[in-house]
Records
---
Amino acid sequence: MAATYYDLEEMSKRLRKYIDANRFYHTQGVRFTSAALAMAHGADIHKAETAGLLHDCAKGISDSKKIKICDKNEIEISKVERNNPFLLHAKVGAYIAKEKYGIDDEEILDAIRFHTTGKAGMHMLEQIVFIADYIEPRRNKSKHLPEIRLAAFRDLDECCYLILKDMLLYLKSKSGEIDSNTQDAYHFYEEVHEDRRD
Ligand SMILES: [Fe+2]
Ligand SMILES: [Fe+2]
């Protein structure tokens, strides 16, 4: 069966109405960075571009509406998500991508679902979007970005390890709550990192 082709220009036009200009530019950055990472690592370029384009499609939805969408569609909300509803834009994004943009590819939906927290043992598309969201050209917050960006094109597992380490450091410095998926992901990729050094 031929792979589904999604009309990304049509989706892009539609998406533009639901997110603000800055978010839209970020989205374009993630779209093309995801495509570049797919090229570097031999993943499906079209799927990476689609997931990158739609990863923040729920970002314009209010917190209360995101909670409502979850409750209505039996999407589980963790305690950390309840306290930090902005995190829900990932899960709700996967729902919107499926229902409103017609995405039926589970790998793309997974990549959207876990782009914020990461998770242990991500598949390649999940890794690509998780990384692209962190390194796209307009990002400038982390002082470790130069080494993280280099790692992204060399070794996806090592890059996930570096990003998760950076995220946990940041969250701890802010005494922010840490989602269990992020914690699990860190342990998973830390182990991969340690195993390689043996
Ligand atoms: Fe996001
Ligand atoms: Fe994003």
---
Amino acid sequence: MRAEEMFFDREGLEMATREEVAHYRAWRLRDCEKIMDLCCGIGGDLLALGQQAEVLAVDADRRRLTMAQHNSQVYDLQKVRFIAAEVQSLRMNVDAVFVDPARRSGQRKRRGEGYSPPLSWVADLRTKVSRLAVKVGPAIPEEDLPPDCEVEFISSGGQCREGALYFGQLATTSRRATLLPERHTLETTAGPDVVVAPPGAYVFDPNPAVVRSHLLDELARKIGAWKLDPQIAYLSSDAATDSPFVRSYRLIRWQPFQLKRLRQTLRDEGLYPREIKKRGFPMEPPELRRRLSLPPDGRPITLLLTRLRQKPVVLICEMQGN
Ligand SMILES: C[S@@+](CC[C@H](N)C(=O)[O-])C[C@H]1O[C@@H](n2cnc3c(N)ncnc32)[C@H](O)[C@@H]1O
């Protein structure tokens, strides 16, 4: 982004879509010639959409709309028009609409009905336009996700940054997890149930977008892995994988979790936990690190704290290349 030439306020910038996410989503709307960008804010999405389509950008906040206007000039976008309006008052006269509702702060911020405009109003647009895409927060509860759309969660910089709903012709599957910047994508597939079994030679920590999309079984089948526990998102296999959807660890050993025994094992073998992660385990990693109180000069390893058959265990691992 040419940040030095652009106009934005702090809140507008905080709400704005990251550039690589905006470009990816614009790519998903690549067949749309005319798009309404509802709730355009300072123009994070607009700058990507406006490079490929005619866009009508709408926001109720005039100040922010002026910033979006300026920013689109910085990018020399020729086919973008602006309207200051409440989006609920508009007639939808294009075939594609993108909406990025404001997610209010406070208690209801995660719920779709706490969005402005509310998610139920936004999702109703699917009856008026043939292509609808909606940005949602990654923490939106499952029960707030409409059933008749594609739900995609996007990871950028290793974190699950946001979700998007695609309706009508834009929907290509029911769930999707996409990793940026490479655009690796994993989608719903049918297949046999994934086995649950104790750890093999390798343990895999799936990307948060895969976990959030509930595509763990798809991933396990794809990389030939099994689950350590039906409810926990660590996978395992006796074979290594170079899948971009996981962080891979070679298992050194695993043992039931007991603080004293773990400290002894690490001391005896000269290991130092450079990284401590957990899933389904009661103790927080910083607390364990403090209670282990080990000198940092051992061989660096990773501790994965989790449970097997309801019992707390620790997996002592070595991180692999990815
Ligand atoms: C999350 S921000 C949009 C960010 C934008 N997509 C970007 O990347 O810069 C949400 C915007 O929705 C606008 N908004 C909220 N409710 C609205 C409504 N009912 N009508 C029009 N705009 C609205 C807010 O003014 C705010 O600018």
---
Amino acid sequence: MLTSERARVRRLGNFAFAMRGVTGIRRTRWLLNVRQVPRPPIERRAPQPVDAVDLAIAERLIAAHRTPSAPAAGENMWAWISENRQRELAERLAGDDPRALAQLLVAMFREDFVLGMAQGPLVWRANSRLEDQAWALKSVDSLVSLAEAAGVVPVENPEQGGSGLAFRGGLEGLLTALEEALGFRLDFPDVGAQSGLLVDGRLITPSTPDQVYAALRLDDAIRINLDTDSAAHPRVTEIGGGYGALCYWFLQRRPGVASYTIVDLPLVNAIQGYFLARALGPENVSFHGEAPSLVRILPDHALAEAAAPCDAVVNKDSMPEMPPEAMVEYLEWAKKNCRGVFYSYNQEAAGEFLGEAQGVVPAAVAELGGFERVRRETAWVRVGYVEEVYRCMAAAEARGERPHASQASPRRTSGPPSA
Ligand SMILES: C[S@@+](CC[C@H](N)C(=O)[O-])C[C@H]1O[C@@H](n2cnc3c(N)ncnc32)[C@H](O)[C@@H]1O
């Protein structure tokens, strides 16, 4: 529906998605008195004009994309997405015109090719006040969940009444307190023409709170489970990084990261590659075939090139959507090459796509063996998502080492992220 050629069907799809977001809010009591919830305006940023930096990045992306790879094939969700939503991007990457590619990328959050990893196009196209209000409600709910998880505001309790506790200092006050506790600004970088809430001069996308939350949890998993040296300078590998949000916020959260590698499908490499190169600086991000930088973007067929051993493997909202053999291949890679932790933030509803049930991470991990689960809990921000932290036993033992164990703090099995 979202990408139908019929405008009315698209509009309906867009509306349905905005409403579906409301069904996923955590504080359903708010719906009884929706007026108490601040709903700031939606900002729709204009694309920045293509400049020399964009052209240089686009040239590098075209060169990186020339390495041979099999197109995403088969009857799986991402083969479908690639076929139905990413054709124009694929054509421009395969062409020889950096400007044409850059023109697409400077407005990426309005384009269908990011659907499945960002809601930007849906928010941008929302064409009724009700849709705007639904996105605002969902975004504010997520922001409050993040603030609750970070301990910046008390948690609401339906048994005690008192709804809207987080707004006592206004939404601006909440945001300022949250930023102070986190140590970085929550404004989305001005890259790709994003859309989201405008609060006190910051653009907060509907998924920013969830991405920031995952970054805090990954940070916690590393600090709690790794030895002091590795925790201070971790080498992180992310599988299926979307447009690069988790990587971006994780790097805002903590200095000293030794390397952050993202392994993803080649077309999505271009999306995350452009976003991160613009948001972090082109010199900090390398593409396939280039000398490694702090952030390294690799296609799935180059998994063997990812730096090993690494200290943490992370997967957020993606292993279940991959073909089962791809999920197993990544887990095998982690088993062999990660000597620290595997952090999984996924749904496990095994919903069907094209008649195939999606994968379930804990089931696949249990079948493979070599991991010890040290934490499992539902996420504070995103309803229906499960966070798990596994210590990777096999790689460390194969090297005759003990798996990383924190000397700094006792092992913890649950609890909110440290702010
Ligand atoms: C729903 S998106 C989630 C993106 C990101 N982790 C997030 O939470 O925003 C799923 C991600 O998995 C990636 N993906 C799908 N199949 C893959 C595969 N076989 N290998 C690596 N990544 C894959 C997609 O390209 C996309 O980046």
